[in-house]
Input
Amino acid sequence: MADVVTCSACGKRNRLPTSAKGLPRCAACHVSLPWLVEADEKTFAAAVSTSVPVLVDLWAPWCGPCKTIAPGVVRAANEFAGRLKVVKVNVDVAPGVSAKFGVQGIPTLLVLRDGKPIARQVGALPADRLTAWVRGAIEERS
Ligand SMILES: [Zn+2]
Output
């Protein structure tokens, strides 16, 4: 599965891999692209195996607060392009991922570094607080 993202600098549409060794860059102008992908139980390990911290968004289609925070998650992907990968996991299709991290309720956001959780946020929060929380998590430990 590959997502397509439009480069905010030059407008070129780029295909985005679920997992890759390096960071995704625009094929035309080479700026870092926001890296937001969806993963399931099969692809999760590869998706979070990357050199940058990973924001994991555990959500489900029936979860209202999950929809509320979705724009904030997209904003974090854009704001921290080149420094953060965002992996969205639908817990209905990937219950094993929530079990792995002991997640009791959604929305739950995790920041992983080298596959291990370094920060956890349970429940909805506004986009500005969400991005501030992500910034704190990824800058504190780097
Ligand atoms: Zn570009």
Q: What stands out?
A: Helices lie at 44-48, 64-79, 95-100, 127-140. The chain has four helices and seven strands. Strands lie at 3-6, 13-16, 35-39, 54-59, 85-90, 108-113, 116-122. The longest strand covers residues 116-122.
